[in-house]
Design brief:
CATH superfamily of the domain at 3-280: Bira Bifunctional Protein, Domain 2
Strand content: 15-25%
CATH architecture of the domain at 3-280: 2-Layer Sandwich
Number of strands: 19
Structural class: alpha+beta
CATH topology of the domain at 3-280: BirA Bifunctional Protein, domain 2
Distance between the termini: 57 Å
CATH class of the domain at 3-280: Alpha Beta
């Protein structure tokens, strides 16, 4: 089954169970300053899991695109990727364990409604309990699983694996259902129960694993095999989180009045299970990319362990880069652009190892688009030149770096500072430093010192990010809310002064300031900035109303409502319009509004409230990348 087929079957199955299909959010989180990327299916839905009402209802289903930058170094084996799609279904205070486990099991095993996996190849886990925090064992999930397997004629014995601390010495023991501790089978934003603050919700989860019978256990991962073993015999394909408890002031746990279900299942992993292929790079779109690469490469996919890893890295990295680019990310040395640059530069190095021609990587953008455009129309716009330009820049940097490396040939060693400079200044991946140094007779590299310098750099970057993101929009404070409304005024003022080509390409709003990235090819003049400030402050003085409306997406588009380029929206959307002065909720007068945007809020009721924070002022206007400018502004 293809990715499209499995995705479509999953969405259709849960639609039959009364779920509303919602679109995937962007890989660039909107108005969430706490993280650079959307890294999980539940991330865009956290406010609703914590109690906010979702406009589509209490039963939701989607396929969410995700990117995890921390997995870049892991790519190269048969299952790790940086980009992936997470199938998800949610119950917001509606159904719970009995419905969720049965529905997912049916989807996995039913040949007509689902994908028809052999139930004898499925193994599941549940929460063993936490006696120290008085959280009980999740016997309900285990009993439900026993019943479901029994209905398929599969014996389902229960085994208590316990914790990683005991080395998972129990092993399989003929089990089908396995109890693990909180490290494996508990979810909360703060982690395990003892780390949760008072008022934090959390609960047990239950994972489903698929067994590849052609893979034998490798003892290097432990004497005993079990579903959570890393030997590759078992592949996790789905996880149902049951947000069941809330932590009390005295440290105890009480039941949540509205209990939620948060399910996530890796789309490509489920496809791999449906094909009984332990190598996800032989399935779906990744397989298409590998085949495309093989047509131009000098070495075959399985010719060596190193060649296989190179194919996988290029296929994963270029696909992830294509999705990031489609969502408005551009290569740079900071924030999101840094990770995009790193993906592309690693791809260049591994392309060279496979003997691919210079400039080849850009051709893969169209291949990614062909595979995904039906579901993700943002990939329809051809942006291959961004990859081509970045590769060309990197090759120039490599040439300079190679000359720098030649300086150390005679001394036979490379200091920590020299290695660090090659990585941070010249963009060398660490493996390239080691490889090129070895080829030039440089046998010693101060790796311990290098790692310490790199850690210091990462700590500084992390501290800077924490300061930059202090008091983000997630807190919905009055100051942040006012700046959010100012953001709408600013976008419209920029379009008025610079032209209708101006579109939002990113934003970040804190209590202290707002930041907007927008499409414009030239530096703004002082006169233009002054005129933008005048327009915004004029609308603040006019004290015009901010009106929220819900309407059909097509109606909002006809009104010319601003929305994120390439993003998918549900059939009904939330729209905020500014003005005119006579507008009310009953009579929003959208056609006469100063600005109108797709937006989830929050906002002030009238622009005059912004004056409580001060006068609108542009602090800085600068280039972010080719064709994209950035403004930082405040109310002071």
């Amino acid at each position: 089954m293809t990715l499209d087929e499995v995705r479509a079957k999953y969405l259709a199955f849960f639609k039959e169970q009364g779920h509303a299909i919602i679109p995937s959010s962007s890989l660039v989180p909107q108005n969430d300053p706490t993280t650079l990327f959307t890294g999980s299916g539940m991330q865009p839905l956290v406010p609703y899991l914590l109690g906010k009402n979702h406009p589509a209802g209490s039963r939701l289903v989607d396929s969410q695109k995700c990117f995890r930058s921390m997995d870049i170094e892991e790519v190269g084996d048969n299952r790790h990727t940086t980009f992936f799609e997470m199938l998800g279904n949610w119950s917001l205070g509606d159904y719970f364990k009995q419905e969720q486990l049965r529905w997912f099991f049916t989807f996995l095993t039913d040949k007509e409604k689902g994908i028809g996996l052999d139930p004898a190849r499925l193994y599941v886990t549940a929460f063993i309990g936490d006696k120290a925090n008085n959280v009980p064992q999740d016997t309900e999930s285990a009993e439900l699983w026993q019943k479901l397997f029994s209905e398929k004629g599969v014996e389902a014995n229960v085994v208590e694996i316990g914790s990683e601390a005991n080395g998972y010495t129990v092993g399989m023991q003929g089990g089908r259902i396995f109890y693990y501790d909180a490290k494996k089978n508990w979810w909360s934003r703060a982690g395990v129960p003892e780390n949760m603050p008072a008022g934090e919700p959390g609960g047990p989860d239950s994972e489903v694993f698929y067994e590849f019978t052609d893979i034998e256990h490798d003892p290097k991962w432990g004497a005993q095999c079990h579903p959570n073993c890393d030997c590759g015999r078992f592949l996790e394909i789905g996880n149902s989180v049951f947000m069941q408890y809330i932590k009390q002031e005295d440290g105890s746990f009480a039941l949540l009045p509205k209990q939620n279900v948060d399910f996530g299942g890796g789309l490509e992993r489920i496809v791999a299970a449906s094909e009984n292929s332990s190598d996800i790079f032989k399935t779906g779109t990744l397989h298409v990319l590998v085949e495309h690469i093989q047509k131009s490469a000098a070495v075959a996919y399985n010719s060596s362990k190193e060649a296989t890893a190179a194919y996988r890295i290029i296929a994963d990295h270029v696909r992830a880069a294509s999705f990031l680019i489609a969502d408005g990310v551009l290569p740079s040395n900071t924030d999101r652009g840094y990770f995009l640059r790193r993906l592309l530069r690693r791809s260049v190095r591994y392309a060279d190892k496979l003997g691919l021609p210079a400039g080849y990587l850009a051709s893969l953008y169209a291949t990614v688009g062909q595979q995904y455009a039906n579901h993700y129309p943002e990939l329809e716009e051809d942006k291959h030149e961004i990859i081509a330009t970045e590769e060309a820049k990197f090759r120039e940097t490599l040439a300079r770096g190679m000359k720098e490396l030649e300086r150390f040939v005679g001394q036979g060693s490379l200091s920590a500072q020299d290695a660090y400079q090659l990585v941070t200044t010249y963009g060398f991946p660490l493996e390239l430093v080691i490889e090129e140094a070895g080829e030039r007779g440089i046998k010693q590299i101060d790796m311990d010192g290098f790692k310490e310098l790199l850690k210091q750099h990462q700590d500084l970057s992390r501290a800077g990010s924490e300061q930059k993101f202090k008091g983000g929009l997630a807190d919905t404070s009055e100051a942040t809310t006012r700046l959010h409304t100012a953001h709408h005024l600013l976008l419209k003022a920029l379009q008025t002064v610079l032209g209708p080509h101006v579109k939002q390409r990113g934003s970040n709003i804190t209590q202290e300031r707002l930041r907007i990235d927008f499409s414009h090819g030239e530096k703004m003049t002082d006169e233009q900035k002054a005129e933008v400030e005048r327009i915004v402050n004029e609308k603040i003085k006019e004290d015009i109303p901010m009106i929220r409306s819900e309407m059909a997406k097509e109606e909002a588009e006809k009104l010319g409502a601003e929305h994120e380029f390439g993003a998918k929206y549900p059939d009904r959307v939330s729209v905020y319009s500014l003005g005119p002065k006579e507008a009310t909720e009953d009579n929003p007068m959208h056609e006469q509004a100063f600005s109108i945007e797709f937006c989830g809020g929050p906002h002030v009721a009238h622009t005059g409230e912004l004056a409580q924070s001060g006068v609108f002022k542009i602090q800085k206007e600068e280039a972010v990348s080719a064709g994209v400018r950035r403004i930082r502004a405040v109310l002071q």
